[in-house]
Amino acid sequence: MGADPSMRHYFAPLFEPAAVAIVGASERKGSVGSVLIENMLAAGYRGQLYAVNPKHREVRGVPCFPTIGEVPRRVDLAVIATPAAIVPGIIDQCGAAGVRAAVVISAGFSESGPAGAKLERALLENARRHRLRVLCPNCLGILRPDIGLNATFARGHARPGTLGLISQSGAVCTAMLDWAAAHEVGFSSVVSLGGSTDVDFGELVDYLVSDPKTAHILLYIEGVRDARRFMSALRAAARVKPVILMKVGRHPAGSRAAVSHTGAMVGTDDVFEAAVRRAGVVRVRTLGQLVAAAQALSSNVRPRGDRLAVITNGGGPGVIAADRASDLDIPLAELSSTTAEALKRALPSNWSQGNPIDLVGDADAERYRTALAACLADPGVDGVLVILAPQAMTAPQEVARAVIECAKTSDKPLLTSWMGEEQVAPARRLLAAQGIPTFRTPDPAIEMFAHVSAFYRNQRMLLQTPGPLSHHAKPDAAGARLVIDAALAERRTVLSEMESKAVLAAFHVPIAKAVRAHSANEAMLIAPETGFPVVMKIDSPDITHKSDVGGVRLGIASAQAAQDAYREMTDGLKRLRPDARLSGVIVEPMVARPNGRELMIGVVHDPVFGPAITFGTGGTAVEVHADRAVALPPLNGMLIEELIRGTRASRLLGSFRQMPAVKRDALETVLLRVSEMVCELPAIREMDVNPLLADEAGAIALDARIVVGHPGAALPRYGHMAIHPYPAHLVSEWTVPVGGRVTVRPIRPEDAEMEREFVKQLSQEAKYFRFMNTVRELAPQMLARFTQIDYDREMALIAVATKDGREEEVGVTRYITNPDGSSCEFAIVVDDEWQKHGLGRYLMTQLIEIARSRGLAIMSGDILAANQGMLALAASLGFAIGDVPGEAGLRRAVLALERS
């Protein structure tokens, strides 16, 4: 059985309107209302166009009406260009007239002050009352070139193509459109978001993911409001389409106050960078790079890998390219013996004998052709950059023609850099006309390849779906919550060192055990019991950097020294920070690890993306070193390896200067435990574990500080995180009536091969009932879509049995939430041999309960009328069975999920 094929996306009125009304249309030349009408007419809009303005009966030949309610047919899209003061009323009129989407070009809302903000709230209230979606305010508009929709006030038009552009800046849209026109690059859609009061990035990306006209997605971002939706949409898009984004505001003028080292060091851009990397998309830094990425994508430069071959007729340009590749962590491909031998036979003896491949200054077109063909055929080469510097013996156009011929034989990324200007300009035009990206210097070519190959590398991040808990000993999450709740009940947001370590210990992070002394005499008694030598530290909720106030004493070796240290530290605190509260002095054993490396693990809470985990060099100079990498939880081994690799501290973890290597699995375990804490304890706002001392024996937290807060509004489980963890709590066991057990669990990306085999071995009838065709096996894109799911918006449960010591899939059921956010469509298929044993009923019952727990109201699916077994099962589960309009061979099963 399958889903309803007639389901129309709720953004169809915005992207595919059958009727458009320009509200505020005008005959006055140069006015926004006039430009909108002109653009729609010039673009050849294929639908019905109307104007709305009480002063006219016709605008440029377009019929005009006093109000939207007087237009003779229902309008799908209203484009509003009137003074801001009357826009809320117009939105109300649009809603009453059945308009489903609107674009507000007008400015003068929140960006203009309190009065404008009040208008914006009224606009949004009216839109929501009528369930009308609004692209607003102060936006350029929307283009859909293939249907002639140019509802913008930009000059010029866009060619139809496969690039989808969403931008929060109208100026960036116009710049991209102007560039595209000159380079004959086309768009499937161009959307200017404006203030994003209603429609946000996530929803628009969602639409482009399912849009068959869009093959590549470009985003220009100034800010994100709904992180979970944004991340879900990006991850869904990156599974099937390359996504390139540019985010501005990387260096905010001010920084927020922070209680921890981590909070002070980690900015919102660090977290955003981690988020997009985890989403599997590629970020560029400049508008020029965004344009270059658009050129690459429009030229069908598709990612294959990151190993680059460089072909040049000069040593200098080759070194320039190699240096830039090294800067961007692009490895130069190691040429195979076959390639090296082919080059050796064809090139002069003084060629470079390696990569970059220097063909020498007198290289002709044939020499270039041979080298390029060999590199494109080499399985160890993922892309090629061909460089030509004009020399006396060079024929730039002949070489360009040779490159064009070779390009036709391979789908590997091929970039060119014809250096110079006058002698090479005609050759560059030849290359560009064939869709081969060409540059004046090697640097931007290498940058383009880096961005394209980053998509390939980031797919590894996208495939990671770690659970909230590792496979190690179960933590005492309830005990940790008690510690946090007690502090919050006392209206404290900073846990003491003792409390912070108690939370770490609850998650099995090794800690240096500590005792708090409340007087000098107590310190004198506690120190010998702890065992000399000891460390003594000030314990104050107001002191973040203890060493700044003389609040740390090392190597205390006698009771008298402990008594003296207590007095000296507390007296110093009163002198340096008379306002600071004193809880006592911590006494703990001095951990002597001569091979120890001081590291730091931290947590910061981003206002948009929620918790993020940091790793880097620790110690008292942590902010001076500023060595940190950031990752979004949940983490697993692969993600932890990426996190560690992104720091300078990673170089200290191996063997050096007679010091043995750090026990990496112990360090990984601590990071996994911190990931668990972040998942299970949404009250954590900031955390420092500094220093975390790591050596060949393991890792131990010597000091810790945790900042907590009330999570706020009631959230679903893991609702505080931008990425939903693998829902391990949904794993269950089902006992087969005839004997044996089956594990039912949410699907994972690594199940792809098992899913492929499952579909492949289904009977023709089972395939037809599920897919409404007799597909032999799943295509790679469909397989990715089935196994790389977003657990926040969909669910797929697979039934796994063990046969001959090997796991095999015997059934799967899934639902996908519809765009309305309140209903879902389901599908199910069970292996032929496992039917009529009750497995289908068990799978459906589990799926229904999950959908119900997520707050969904309706579950539905279309079932072939011939599939009597599925129709009977659906009816027995409470689904109402009805006809599908216009589809005699289908029946629709609908279940109300609300509990009575």
Task: Please tag this protein with its features.
about 900 residues, alpha/beta, 7-stranded mixed sheet, 28 helices, about 25% strand
Mean pLDDT: 89
Helix fraction bin: 25-40%
For the termini, the CA-CA separation is 28 Å
Strand content: 15-25%
User: Quaternary status of these chains?
Assistant: single chain
SS summary, helix count: 28
What would you call the structural class?
Answer: alpha/beta
**Unreliable parts:** 2-6, 253-261
Shape: globular
Gyration radius over CA: 32 Å
Main sheet properties: 8 strands, mixed
Trace the largest sheet across and list its strands: 30-31-32-33-34-35-37-36
Written overview of the protein:
This protein is α/β, with parallel strands linked by helices and 900 residues long. It has 28 helices and 37 strands. It has an 8-stranded mixed beta sheet, sandwiched between helices. It has a 7-stranded mixed beta sheet with strand order 3-4-2-1-5-6-7, sandwiched between helices. A 7-stranded mixed beta sheet has the order 9-8-11-10-12-13-14, sandwiched between helices. Strand 6, helix 4 (114-129) and strand 7 form a beta-alpha-beta unit. Helix 11 (315-327) packs parallel to helix 16 (442-462). The longest helix is centred in the middle third of the chain and has 21 residues, at 442-462. The chain is globular. The two termini are 28 Å apart. 49% of the residues are buried.
